[in-house]
Amino acid sequence: MRSEGVAPPERERLLALGGQVLVSGEEVRIVVKTEEEKEQAMRLILQGGGRLLALAPQRESLEEVFVRKVSGHAEA
To answer: What angle do CA 74, 65, 40 make, to 5 degrees?
Structure first.
């Protein structure tokens, strides 16, 4: 999820969700794992006066799947 205009207090709250928060200038990129975290993050962004720029699921690439499987870290 990409956003902009997220104030520092909201950034801290986003970090507390347990995902990744990457800041580059005004743009804030948030990576969460669950649907609940996604909805909480969107609420925090909008309530804090921020703007949601993009919302896209991140999928594991074929290369990442292959490396995970051959390294013995296969998940069900």
So the answer is: 90
